[in-house]
Amino acid sequence: MEKVEQAFKELLKEQAAYREAIALTHWDMRTKIPKKGVQQRSEVVGFLAEKLHQLETSDKMKEYIDSLQHTDDELLKKIVDDCLETYERSRKIPTDEFKEYVMLQSQAESVWQDAREKADFSMFQPYLEKLVAFNKKFANYWGYEENIYDALLHNYEPGVTTKVLDEVFPKVRKSLTSLLKKIQNSSVTPEPSLLTVPFPKKDQEALSIEILKRMGYDFEAGRLDDTIHPFAISLNPNDVRITTRYDEKDFRMAVFGTIHEGGHALYEQNISEKLVNTPLATGTSMGIHESQSLFWENFLGRNEAFWNSHYDLFKKYAPKQFEKVSLEDFYQAVNEVKPSFIRIEADELTYCLHIMVRYELEKALINGEIEVKDLPQLWNEKMEEYLGITPPSDREGVLQDIHWAGGDFGYFPSYALGYMYAAQIHHSMNEELDVDKIISSGNYTDIKQWLSKNIHQYGKSKKPLEIINDVTNESLNPDYLINYLTEKYSNIYKF
Amino acid sequence: MEKVEQAFKELLKEQAAYREAIALTHWDMRTKIPKKGVQQRSEVVGFLAEKLHQLETSDKMKEYIDSLQHTDDELLKKIVDDCLETYERSRKIPTDEFKEYVMLQSQAESVWQDAREKADFSMFQPYLEKLVAFNKKFANYWGYEENIYDALLHNYEPGVTTKVLDEVFPKVRKSLTSLLKKIQNSSVTPEPSLLTVPFPKKDQEALSIEILKRMGYDFEAGRLDDTIHPFAISLNPNDVRITTRYDEKDFRMAVFGTIHEGGHALYEQNISEKLVNTPLATGTSMGIHESQSLFWENFLGRNEAFWNSHYDLFKKYAPKQFEKVSLEDFYQAVNEVKPSFIRIEADELTYCLHIMVRYELEKALINGEIEVKDLPQLWNEKMEEYLGITPPSDREGVLQDIHWAGGDFGYFPSYALGYMYAAQIHHSMNEELDVDKIISSGNYTDIKQWLSKNIHQYGKSKKPLEIINDVTNESLNPDYLINYLTEKYSNIYKF
């Protein structure tokens, strides 16, 4: 048995080596690669991914799983279970269908880019129809209990089902739209133009690094680079890299973006050493990951206590014009709420409404209740209903996100779950720590340690809702987000 | 047959994918990796290298080689021959001995670092003894015709033998030592302190980039980064990266270093597309590679025509102090000849003498004519004999280079060959082109194209001496280097 365990761990180590090589390759492609190197590199990534896939679905892997499945070693059992799930889900898709799907994905992404530019949904429609058909087929291969969409949701947020979302989302939506109405009727009108003054890149970078260090991001186990689309990527817990984007006319892009990616990175940097070289050495779900980035971005970066105590720090790096901006005006401006068309530009309050639009549409698509051709109209209707605005074209509407073009159905809900998890985690943390006081102190070590102890260290060895239950003593509860937003925005908008 | 060829090419493509992943990994480790990521990464590199090695020595590979060895396709035949050589040389080393050797290498490198720091050869001696013993054993496995050292030389400069070197090197050495004597007796005394004025990094970088662009280095197929130890590395001909080092007190480090690495990179960038995804898509030998970097560094960068016509360009980027330095003083200063202890700091004339010391010692070691324990004394005696100076300690003597600690015996001669090849190539080029006129024009396209047409495009599909014969219509001939150095330095030192 010990020999089998040894061989199993060797196989896991090989997988981890491929994962690290793939992650490095991706990082390089997004940050450093010269233009002419891209084509050859894509083939290299494809090759490495195939090798990893072969190991994950190999007969040898199945042999080890069968031998070790009844082990008493709790951690080993979790690793074996994770490998089994990957093995089974991959094996359920016939190889030729999977190959066809991968080709479709890359064609669809390229057509989508064109269609978005031209605001022409009809170009993209036939590809999206095929992607939906594939996803329905795959969902049936994978199986589900109540709703076919659950089989897809499982890829991003295992344990969270349509039933859960259909209880939680409408409640959140109702509260958000009611809050939004009050905000729109408020006499307070934040002035975000105060913030868009020229702010040299090197000063934005210095400020971002200062905050990252205070957050406890370990620069000896990571680095910060410059990209168009900011991201965080883990090669392993000792090498977790982040990127940001500098807009010299709007510091918010880089500063809040860096804090957000820094939150993702802290999660990956603080996964227990015990999990390294196993498939559990990663965040447990998209939603929990997003809860970590949003925790730092909103509960620290857009928090009143933060700016009360850090406005001087900010002004140390910021251009002189900010001397004339009062703290109150500044704080209001960074928290302006305003319905907008583009999800990734949405504020903290309306963001979840963008998600609801997408969730309801993709669930209905996968369930065969609506057709792809009707998406643009349905999208615009829902935007009008939830946010009170109608996109001027499909470029600012149904064509804005890459997710569906990549076949990623079931992904969007994780973003909204991240907001709810973050608020719920923040509430529990506050019962043990005086969070605002720690933020005011300028040294956030206690916050980072609390998150690492309760969440980060476990990586993927706990399921998302297990984390939430263990940390907060209850299951997913949207009231914390609703209460937090109500309190925060009633203060800002004085209602 | 076509099917076998197809399968063979697929296998080559897999090897190329591993090579690119390994090259990227190395580049990242030397330029970007955070400190704590190094340990895990070393294991990833080891894993990828092992996978590549497995493919190169697989039974399947042997099968393809056997089937395709008598093909009429000239290029295919060369690829198959190269694969066969790799296969056979690897297979001749018993696996357990190779593993032991790899472990020894990494131990020895680490001990060597320590020993060098402490200037204590006795620490390193037992490791070097083992490394020599392994290399003798491997050389016997590989086989040779006349001298056991030839089997090692073959790893770096196939076709060049001890017999060749023993004809050429003494002749060069005699000329160099006689030139050196004349220089030391000259009344001309260059003043290199004129050059060591503060020169901001960003200006050095801009100047380096300007020269690289004029050389024809394609920034869309490469990039320039910052490191302690400058290098050039090819991921594939469309992604060839270089690094340089900026010393703000001495621009020569970055400017000549960048030109040197740019020369290596031009070679790799201009290898024919036909060779991509085969093992021939690389420089043919260490010596030919070095001929390319040295051609640009010396025949362009340290050339009188270059400075005559480019001194204004230089002053555009350089600090004001250079306004007061005359062109003549400047040109003399960048070409100062002065015996020194450290090979990598040696000037263009004395450099080859450093190589002769190493060549004679390592050849004698491998032939069992001297013992490891006697190296320090022998080293110092030869330094005194050829350069007229004795290192103050082994740190500046026998312990200065990493090559032997890595088991690289047979490597050093390539450096001196690179000088001779470069001079010989320069002579041939001058018969077709007016090289100095092209350099003076500031647009070096014709030079790059000549080198690409005659050398670069062939990659490893021609052997080193085949290249030299085809380009110069004769075999290796050291007279060109001797004549070039005599003419250049008799002008500078006026003898």
Task: Describe what this molecule looks like in 3D.
Two copies of one chain form a homodimer. The first copy, chain A, is mainly α. The first copy, chain A, has two domains: 2-92, no CATH class; 121-495, Neurolysin, domain 3. The first copy, chain A, is built from 20 helices and three strands. Chain A has helices at 2-31, 38-56, 59-68, 74-92, 95-118, 121-142, 148-153, 162-184, 201-215, 251-269, 286-300, 304-317, 327-334, 351-366, 375-387, 413-432, 435-441, 445-454, 464-472, 479-493, and strands spanning 224-226, 232-236, 239-244. In chain A, helix 5 packs antiparallel against helix 6 (121-142) and helix 10 (251-269) crosses helix 11. In chain A, 63% of the residues lie in helices and 3% in strands. Chain A binds chain B through residues 13-14, 17, 20-21, 24-25, 28, 32-37, 39-41, 43-44, 47-48, 218-223, 235-236, 238-239, 241, 276, and chain B through 13-14, 17, 20-21, 24-25, 28, 32-37, 39-41, 43-44, 47-48, 218-223, 235-236, 238-239, 241, 276.
